[in-house]
Amino acid sequence: MSRNRIRIPAALAALGLLAAVPVASASDGYPGTRHVLLISVDGLHQADLATYATQHPRSAMAGLLTRGTAYSGARTPVPSDSFPGLIGQLTGGDPAATGIYYDATYNHRLLPAGTTSCAGKTPGAQVDLTEDLDRDQSRLDAGQGLSGLPGSVLGMTGDPRPLLNPAGLPVDPRTCRPVQPHEYLKVNTVFEVARQAGLRTAWSDKHPAYEILNGPSGAGVQDLFTPEIASTGPAGTGDWTTDNAATRQYDGYKAQAVLNEIDGFDHSGTRRAGVPAVFGLNFQSVSTAQKLPKSGGQTGGYLPGGTEPGPVLTSALDFVDGRIGAFVAELRRRHLDRETTIILSAKHGQSPTDPGALTRIDDGKLLAGLNAAWQARHPGAGELVAQSTDDDAMLLWLTDRSPAATNFAKQYLLAQNGTGTDSSGAPKAFTNSGLKTVYAGADAARYFGVRPGDDRVPDLFGITQYGVVYTGGTKKIAEHGGVAADDRAVPLVVSGPDREARTVAAPVATTQIAPTILRLLGLDPQALQAVREEGTQVLPDSH
């Protein structure tokens, strides 16, 4: 047993996670499940899966449906973004419980990154858990210093903490120390509960900042493989998302890591470690294929009408299906197929699917106008907007949280009309800053289910008119982060041994994946703090 595993119970106990709820022994698991492989195909919609399986009845994704329960009414948390989406799947909680609203947010209690003398400092800090936190964002290994990249990327560490730049982290005024991503998460994870029961854990994702999945103990994921997707791509121009062939190459490294883990090795394939009880990855290929107007000379996204994928998206779906098929084949070859449950879902969808609905709006101009109007009304005041995160929703954190300030921001934005661009780049008029509904101040807190004045909740949450994407250019035709069905209606399939095909049409949430994983492994779902706080249920007909 490694030193890390010996130290885990102490780390968990220090946070009160051991004593809070008894955890069942792994030997009490449901017959047939010793391993759970979670696959997130980012951007994939429930409709995409249904159509693909119908058109490709011999495909790997169709095979998952024939051996499992499909939840056709599954929805992601709001905002429908990668961080709250995946963290919801692995904690059982919405942002109200987890404290995670996006990967780039603001906290009114913490101090800015780089603060070294904390006495008397005014709180308020950006919390940037994106690629900006890497030691070297330009490198696929995030600054580890491997030679022979990209081919050597599987040699990356399984502990991404040394790849993070502490100078980019917000500072806790109580300790005057940087807050690590895992420390920022308010609740424990499936990985922590599994490790407490003596089970092995692994995950692969797109930034080292996904170290947050370790949970408050800092010790949840034993093997966390995080090649940087925003690093310089293979062509030397742009990152791995600017060309879908590059994204598929990138995803291939993470898929190989999972194959190595199925074979009983760590992600690199060089060290025997045992097959994880909880492991998986996210795929980015479908997401970038939905966003790119063109890639490799072919049309990205969906064809007019928004239901049929264009050629780039079709290739991405075929690629992901092939990798899932490789997982299934390797599980079978290793005689693990009858003791492994595969869960297929997505962190988020993508909106709009219909290119004719797209309206791109430069949010930078809107926010500059808001700041200028506020300063004109309050001479000598600084900028009102402390942090904005705008994809196809608008999340604002303000320097002044008073009702007067939050209402000012709301009324200003709802009064702005202008001109954006459509999917071809032609001018397209917009009204009300592209917003349909705006929650500000106490209303925003109530919308997310937290108390007014909460340190983390956005001071303004804007729900966009369908098809609006905030971007200053024409490089993308879809985004996520909002509340539209295109954002939130994702697939959810629990597939495994001795299961019959069935469909549950009743509404469910992707947060229900977390307690379901534990129940499948014979662990107590109530060991998850968010499950207890929010009453998150195990998925019906999942075992």
Automatic annotation (TrEMBL):
Q: Which keywords, in A-to-Z order, does the entry hold? A: Signal
Please state the span of the N-terminal signal peptide per the UniProt entry: 1-26
Which Pfam families is this protein grouped with? Answer: Phosphodiest
Q: Which domain of life is it from?
A: Bacteria
**Gene3D superfamilies linked:** Alkaline Phosphatase, subunit A
The protein, known as: Alkaline phosphatase family protein
Q: Which organism is it from?
A: Amycolatopsis nalaikhensis
Tell me the classification of the organism that encodes this protein: Bacteria, Bacillati, Actinomycetota, Actinomycetes, Pseudonocardiales
